[in-house]
Amino acid sequence: xxxxxxxxxxxxxxxxxxxxxxxxxxxxxxxxxxxxxxxxxxxxxxxxxxxxxxxxxxxxxxxxxxxxxxxxxxxxxxxxxxxxxxxxxxxxxxxxxxxxxxxxxxxxxxxxxxxxxxxxxxxxxxxxxxxxxxxxxxxxxxxxxxxxxxxxxxxxxxxxxxxxxxxxxxxxxxxxxxxxxxxxxxxxxxxxxxxxxxxxxxxxxxxxxxxxxxxxxxxxxxxxxxxxxxxxxxxxxxxxxxxxxxxxxxxxxxxxx
Length: 257
Known about the structure:
- The chain is of the alpha+beta class.
- Helices cover 47% and strands 18% of the residues.
- The protein has helices at 9-18, 44-48, 54-77, 99-115, 142-155, 192-200, 204-213, 216-228, 233-251; strands spanning 32-41, 81-86, 89-94, 121-133, 138-140, 160-162, 180-182, 188-190.
- Helix 3 (54-77) packs antiparallel against helix 4 (99-115), helix 4 crosses helix 6 (192-200) and helix 8 packs across helix 9.
- The protein is globular and about 85 Å long.
């Protein structure tokens, strides 16, 4: 029985040398210009320091993740929006044409976080250069870095602030979301209370009843009274956040204190 002769080592080397090796590297990726939102759950960091409240933290995180997933689902399927979770925050990136949908989504997330989880949320929506995706598990770029800083330094209260940078890329005529208002410090934000009142056709009386039955009235009043009398700087900030929320409901005809 004749055996096929095995190639000698020099023949292997010669064969390898004959293989074509790519000479050009793939073109470098560039940043895309998109809408970038960063939202952060308030109070979770303090709760996480208490070993006895781990279940509460995990429940809140799971609930808010569900709100984000539900709100973003349709646009994710269409390939028009991506998001990732980073700790107790979420980065949401969408195409410029999705400005009105994204404002609706953010307002819905903030509403559900308050009404269903009795938790406050703040954030920012801006636009600029960004790269990354859900699949890659990260977003990076000047707009992402800017969003982090704006949320930390400018949002301050339980509000999602709206940055005018968006209008560098979009005509004002294309921004039809009707609940962007200017606060007392002249910073614009998404009026999630007004948006949800209108979309759900809630009267002041119905809203008052909802806040009472969901325990939100008691929570805001209790925490405000607890923190406002404390001289600790961090607790004063917490009182200011509750006070801001209480004042926004008062603007809607619902007095909580």
